[in-house]
Write a structure and sequence with these properties.
Number of helices: 10
Structural class: alpha/beta
Shape: globular
Radius of gyration: 18 Å
Number of strands: 7
Order of helices and strands: HHEHEHEEHEHHEHHHE
Length: about 250
């Protein structure tokens, strides 16, 4: 994974990340592993606090997590004691050749150095194994969500990912795509908590953080779909790109 400040910025907010970030729909994870019957040997790459891992464990799969940020690994261990979380990255996975039936990455694919990561993922997958990238994206077809994305500098969209993630290298088949909808109910303070786990916020200067919080507060109190609500339904589009290793 890239060694940029943003990529390794999440550890200081690991507990909040785990609390406020949405989970993945069960149907999306089942599709990501291509319906493999549990238990299969899976790897959660760039595992963070273990959100993908927890979903895979609930489906009965065996999971080994790989995560470069020690703060995130510490939170992972607190949330999922007994599940291995190894220090490593997409470009240097501390697992043997052909180890996994499936490798998943949730939210972290854009941090990868793809020229180095794709061959490394292929190395740890068995022939015919599955690599899948999964994203929870706020549904910007909803007006106030578009404004939220602008305030929080959230750039990824379904159309952008479909246009830019065109393949995982020569050792993989052409990716297949699927999309799943979900809604996460949040209190207004929880929405602010979620924004505070974004890399742009975590690496921003204090003045910029105050600006984001003020703009978000104004959105919450003035937008007709949000003002006065105790609970806000934040709509997500969960996008999965899946490819099989040759």
């Amino acid at each position: 994974m890239t060694d940029s400040t943003e990529a390794l910025s999440f550890g200081v907010a690991a507990a909040d990340y785990d609390r406020y970030r949405p989970r993945y729909p069960e149907a999306a994870l089942r599709w990501a592993v291509d319906g493999l019957a549990a238990p299969t040997r899976t790897v959660d790459l760039g595992a963070g606090t273990g959100i993908v891992t927890a979903g895979l464990l609930a489906l009965g799969h065996q999971v080994t997590a790989v995560e470069p940020d020690p703060g995130m690994r510490a939170q992972f261990a607190a949330v999922l004691p007994g599940t291995p979380a190894l220090a490593g990255s997409a470009e240097s996975i501390p697992l043997p050749d052909g180890y996994a039936d499936a490798v998943l990455v949730g939210q972290a694919y854009h941090w990868f150095d793809r020229e180095r990561a794709h061959p490394e993922v292929a190395r740890v997958l068995r022939a015919g194994g599955t690599f899948a990238a999964v994203w929870n994206l706020r549904d910007d077809r909803v007006g106030w969500v578009t404004e939220l994305n602008r305030i929080a500098e959230i750039g990824d969209t379904v159309d952008h990912l479909r246009a830019t993630v065109t393949g995982f290298g020569p050792r993989f088949a052409t990716p297949e795509w699927a999309e799943f909808g979900q809604v996460t109910p949040l209190a207004p303070d929880d929405l602010l908590g979620m924004v505070r786990t974004r890399s742009h916020y975590l690496t921003a200067e204090p003045a910029r953080r105050r600006e984001v919080e003020a703009e978000l507060g104004e959105l919450l109190t003035t937008h007709p779909d949000l003002a006065g609500r105790d609970i806000i339904d934040l709509p997500y589009r969960t996008l999965v790109a899946r490819a099989h290793r040759h």
